[in-house]
Write a structure and sequence with these properties.
The chain has about 250 residues and is an alpha/beta fold. The protein contains 9 helices and 7 strands, in the order αααβααβααββαββαβ. It has a 5-stranded parallel beta sheet. Helix 5 packs across helix 7. The longest helix is centred in the N-terminal third of the chain and has 16 residues. The protein starts with a helix and ends with a strand. The structure holds zinc ion (ZN) (2 copies).
Length: about 250
């Protein structure tokens, strides 16, 4: 193709694209925000709050106070999680909650690079970042997958795998129970809802493998804990959980 023609075609395609998808923030719908910004303007981004120390050493719940030593929250003192530690990048509130909801239930995939970026920046700060053997997404049940057409945890895990050079294993853990949504359940109900929901297929070996388990949101930790339980029962080494957001 003639070199002079190429930019013209690109310009024409850009104009068409901008006609159908103008460069506006898809959250506030007021400010400009390009594809490179995942269509979230700087103003809306500034409302996303990072999860910061001090945190419970195990479940990663943030504590609003002045603690400089390692500590365990009341929940972790009374209940033993199967994962070794859980951490999240940002708080599940406001703008971020809307973005996650639309990404997950309305297929607003243009938000995905922002979610991946938050996760990658959070994970880079952890000392274990290069010690995992595999990245494993929290699986969806087959029926839910057909309904939703994609598993958000799997998409995030694939992007992390590209960023950290760690293999993603999305068949390592399967969801054998089509559980009801955890959103409106109490902590106790969430736990029994996901009990026995996951297993590692017999033909798969996870013995001694250190796993980075990925999900979009950590609320009570019931789902990721149940996944970690299945992985540990099958012989996994340590299981660390990372989620984009933390319900606090
Ligand atoms: Zn905005
Ligand atoms: Zn805790």
């Amino acid at each position: 193709m003639n070199r002079k023609v190429k930019p013209t075609i690109k310009w024409f395609l850009d104009v068409c694209l901008h006609f159908f998808y103008p460069d506006f923030c898809q959250v506030c719908r007021k400010n400009r925000a390009s594809h490179e910004l995942s269509y979230v303007c700087l103003g809306c981004r500034s409302e996303i709050t990072k999860v910061q120390e001090p945190l419970c050493g195990i479940c990663g719940t943030p504590f609003d106070g002045e603690i400089t030593t390692k500590f365990e929250c009341g929940n972790c003192r009374s209940f033993e999680f199967s994962f070794d530690q859980a951490r999240s990048a940002v708080r599940a509130e406001g703008v971020l909650l809307e973005i996650l909801h639309r990404y997950k239930y309305e297929k607003a995939h243009w938000f995905e690079p922002l979610l991946v970026d938050l996760l990658v920046k959070g994970i880079r700060k952890t000392p274990n970042a290069t010690l995992w053997d595999w990245v494993v997404p929290v699986p969806l049940h087959g029926l839910k997958l057909r309904e939703r057409e994609f598993n958000q945890a799997e998409r995030l895990a694939v992007s992390l795998s590209d960023n950290f050079g760690i293999s993603v294993k999305n068949k390592l853990l399967i969801r054998v129970k089509d559980t009801e949504s955890q959103t409106r359940l109490t902590k106790k109900e969430r736990k029994s809802n996901v009990s026995g929901a996951f297993l590692v297929p017999l033909e798969v070996s996870v013995i001694g493998r250190n796993i980075l388990l990925i999900d979009d949101v950590f609320t009570t930790g019931s789902t990721t804990d149940e996944c970690a339980k299945a992985l540990k029962s099958a012989g996994a080494g340590y299981v660390d959980v990372w989620t984009v957001a933390r319900g606090v």
